[in-house]
Write a structure and sequence with these properties.
The chain has 20 helices and no strands. By secondary structure, it is mainly α. Helix 4 packs parallel to helix 12 and helix 15 runs antiparallel to helix 16. The protein is globular and about 65 Å long. The N terminus and C terminus are likely disordered.
Length: 443
């Protein structure tokens, strides 16, 4: 999320300063995770409060700059163009989701889906749909916007766990984010590692597909009664059109803000045709935008806090320490995977994490004989695993906001990223292990 880069010739931070620079992340994890574990309830500690405490700590422990300059760094990172662009997506997504729900578009789409699939296969079909759409459009955010409201309605119709259905969509969304040729993570990984997309895609298939099969098998073997407990209700099939427009335009590769705007306009037109008035529909959209308030606050605070961490040299120190004791290709793979995973944990943005560690990962890969397609695959896959699992990632925040559940609620049901992590570990362990070609070479 951060745009800050340290000066090219800045000295490496000392261990004490490096640990201090990273301490806001530790404070956040203690306040949020540890407190939740101690009290045995992940719903009690609001994510925004944990980030507020960590943000205050980040500003307090910054170097000896005046307080106004420290706040300026935080504000600059929180107000970065990438963050404001994401907020635009949140606002449009909230407006569209609320409008579509109130007009009956979501219910019509769910009813149509239930007519095509037996109830026990609905969850598997939802996962496959998420995988396909994300692979086609190359963005997990677009997939979340398109499918989360439908997944929520499916869960509510059958009296099932909403968080579980949201987790199914998130898992499938990151399947395509990891594999798609047009995904920003794929572009960043292949460019930084110097390999072509086709080679990276082939390497990724051997990791992502087995993990997806594991998750899909679980969904197909576990019975769900979606739709069995609901009464038969007549729905207007024309109300499916806004979601068809969203999916079609997204698959065509059109910018997500334009996709959402077209979805809103389509829903408004259908509303007018079927008897809704503009003032009522404006009210629906306003309610949806208001529901994004907490999400926007969390996004701004996370971006500001993590930007301060990077500005203080925390990421630079972390990279240096993690690359200090690598001696073989297997160790190099573990190092690359750990680097991008931990940096993603500290930045909450998988593309930024890949770009941050891309250059040093390429150096490690070349020294220890790791093929560029393998290092690119590791960067993309491991960043997507962490991005899917952290409750403060943009995709999870957006999905849970659309579902009106806490950001941490889907975490116990994220089977796909855990399966993906297991396959990555196995691939590293059984892969060929080579010693460094030049042990005296400088990193």
């Amino acid at each position: 999320m951060s745009s800050y880069t340290a000066p090219l010739h800045s000295p490496s931070p000392t261990t004490r300063k490096g640990l201090l620079a990273l301490s806001p992340v530790v404070v956040f994890l203690i306040v949020y995770l540890v407190v939740s574990l101690v009290i045995g309830d992940f719903y009690k500690m609001p994510l925004a409060v944990a980030l507020l405490i960590a943000s205050i700590w980040a500003i307090l422990i910054s170097d000896k700059r005046p307080l106004t300059q420290r706040i300026e760094i935080f504000s600059r990172e929180a107000g970065h163009s990438n963050i404001l662009y994401m907020i635009w997506i949140f606002v449009l997504a909230g407006a569209f989701a609320s409008l579509a729900k109130e007009l009956g578009c979501v219910e019509a789409t769910v009813r149509l889906t239930l007519d095509f699939f037996p109830p026990r296969f609905i969850v598997g079909a939802l996962f496959l749909a998420s995988c396909f759409i994300s692979l086609a459009i190359g963005t997990s955010v677009g997939t979340v916007v398109a499918l989360t409201p439908i997944a929520v309605e499916m869960a509510q119709v059958g009296g099932e766990n909403v968080a579980f259905f949201v987790a199914v969509v998130l898992g499938g969304a990151f399947f395509g984010d990891n594999l798609s040729f047009i995904s920003d993570t794929t572009i960043a990984a292949t460019r930084t590692q110097g390999c072509n997309m086709a080679d990276k895609f082939k390497a990724n298939l051997w990791i992502a597909v087995p993990a997806a099969i594991v998750a899909l098998t679980f969904y197909l073997l576990t019975p769900y009664d979606v739709g069995l407990h609901s009464e038969e209700v007549d729905t207007n099939v024309w109300l499916v059109i806004p979601y068809l427009v969203i999916i079609l335009l997204a698959v065509m590769g059109i910018n997500v803000t334009i996709v959402l705007t077209c979805g809103i306009l389509t829903a408004l037109c259908l509303g007018l045709i079927f008897g809704s008035d503009l003032l009522s529909m404006a009210s629906f959209m306003g309610q949806g935008i208001d529901s994004m308030g907490n999400l926007i606050i969390i996004t701004l605070m996370a971006a500001g806090m993590l930007g301060v961490v990077k500005a203080q040299g925390g990421i630079q120190w972390l990279l240096e320490r993690l690359t200090a004791k690598v001696h073989s290709s297997r160790g190099a793979k573990w190092c690359i995977a750990s680097l991008v995973a931990i940096v993603n944990l500290c930045t909450a943005n998988n593309t930024v994490a890949i770009i941050t560690v891309g250059s040093i990962s390429r150096d490690i890969a070349e020294r220890y004989g790791v093929e560029p397609r393998r290092s690119a695959s590791l960067l993309d896959t491991c960043s997507c695993i962490v991005q899917c699992l952290i409750p403060y990632g943009a995709q999870t925040l957006l999905a849970t906001a659309l579902a009106s559940i806490p950001p941490q609620a889907p975490w116990p049901y994220l089977y796909y990223p855990w399966a993906l992590a297991g396959v990555v570990a196995i691939a590293i362990i059984i892969g060929k292990n080579k010693k460094a070609r030049n042990m005296g070479a400088a990193m």
